[in-house]
Amino acid sequence: MDKHVTGAECRLPPLDASLLFDGPLSLIVIVLGVVGNLYSLRVLFRTSINTAMLVSLTGLAVWDVVLLVTAFMHHSIWASLHYLQIAESLWDPWAVALNGLLECAHITSTWMLIVVSAERFFAVTRPFHSAASMRGKPRRPSYARLIGGLIRLPLVLTALACLLTLPCSFEYRLIPCTHNDQTLNQKVKTDLMLNPYYKVLFHTLLLSIMKTFGPFVVITLLTASTVKGLRESMDCRALILLEQGKEHLFAADQDKTRSLQMISVLLLGKFLLLRCWPTAVAVAGVFFGDGIIERLLPANASEFLLLLNSATNSFVFVILKAAFESRRLKRIRMRHRQLVAQHAEQVLSIGKMLASDHILRGRIPSWPSLGSRRKADPEGNANVALVEHIELEQRNSGLSMGSFS
Questions:
Q1: pLDDT band, very low/low/confident/very high, at 2 (cuts 50, 70, 90)
Q2: Which of 103, 217, 277, 394 could be stapled to 168 by a disulfide with Cβ–Cβ 3.0 to 4.6 Å?
Q3: Where are the beta strands (DSSP E) in 139-181?
């Protein structure tokens, strides 16, 4: 909208694909995202995981909810009403008032994603430190002090994000316009937003680096290091397990490694497709014109993809991780039942052999002693180790290998 038009006819957005992305599609993503994040918080607080990871995932879910709710009031609900022709009105006052908060929520949510990735990295490379954090201390005043120390980083990141995005609150202003004989307000760009240095250096380059490209590089490095560290650890553990003949534990470790790899690939692919691509297209549009945006991305789909990325963060880290962990434990129990059945068949065959031998000799068969059974079945202690492993997995099946690693 032209800022020099004052008191003119209000220009409502056309009923086209751009309004479809801003309205109904965004509304569906927002509702499902808020419900998913709240459910993830419920799952988090009902499981026993690393305290630092709990704080980080909680911060990520909270800021994703803030982002989605802000987008709901910023444009989604009003665009939906206008697209469905339920109400025909401008929502520019909401867009102007919440523009700074929306940018702050975008950056804080992304930075919390970096913190979660760092916690996963430390959980794999320093498992004993993570285990000590998981045990924690009794719930007494010192525990509150521990929590206070852990939430310090999310609070600092929030303050920095708000300070960085403070100029975004002054990018638009309202001017009066008329619509159906009513005086309304519509937004126009301020002199700050029209300044080419501000638009290119701050709004385009700096915010894109701090909000998208920089975090993507950091998250990629942390995720690659996490997967590499886990594979090296599991390779060393596999040599020991195979040497001891504990193939069932080796298979369980393979399931854990595959689960982490799938989560990591999904996380990076989602971030690249839903966040880096729209941002790169928007940056290209500043330098090469808006025509390139229309060729590379549907109209107004950029904000929709950003919302979809934030709506699915906790789904990947909590809900999907829980599903993988549940499937892994189910496969462990199935292997346990198979091993028990094999052991029972071995004991039964040995008993039949001993009984037939006693009958042929005319002796009364007697049940073999514990020592003889162990000699006859050198793998007799395998079930004990497996049962202990399953009990340990069930106690520590919070949703990860100690801290959502």
A1: very low
A2: 103
A3: 172-179
